[in-house]
# Entry
Amino acid sequence: MKVNECMTREVTIVDPDDTIEEAARTMADIDAGILPVGEDDRLVGMVTDRDIAIRGVGQGREPSAKVRDVMSPEVRYCFDDDDAEDVLNNMAELQVRRMPVLSRSKRLVGVISITDLALNGGEAHTGEVLREIARPSLRHSQTV
# Structure
């Protein structure tokens, strides 16, 4: 199966000059913990609820701080014609639950999540991948 057969196509994008308060409200409105950040028709980053909490609030930033101040500029992505199984394995290696999907012309066309993959026939393997993604780091492990 190809990514474009199971990805979510409707994606809300925030601008890097939007405030973190606006981004958080958007996340609440669409019930998502991650938003692609776009500028001039290009994907320039990703912002998560964790980014807002840790890099924003945790560092004393005001709600009026810009998304660009807390976003992750390094974007891990896949292409819409990639094999879903390969993308799932890559998500496990990167320990991510969602990934933006780009066309070969590098335009954002969707987002793929482990849920999208599980709902489209990859339940068993998706469970293994989720176990890898959720693997705690040694720093936060309670068994150390």
In short: The CA atoms of residues 39 and 59 lie 25 Å apart. The chain is about 35% helix and 20% strand. Confidence is low (pLDDT under 50) at residues 140-144. The first strand starts at residue 34 and ends at 39.
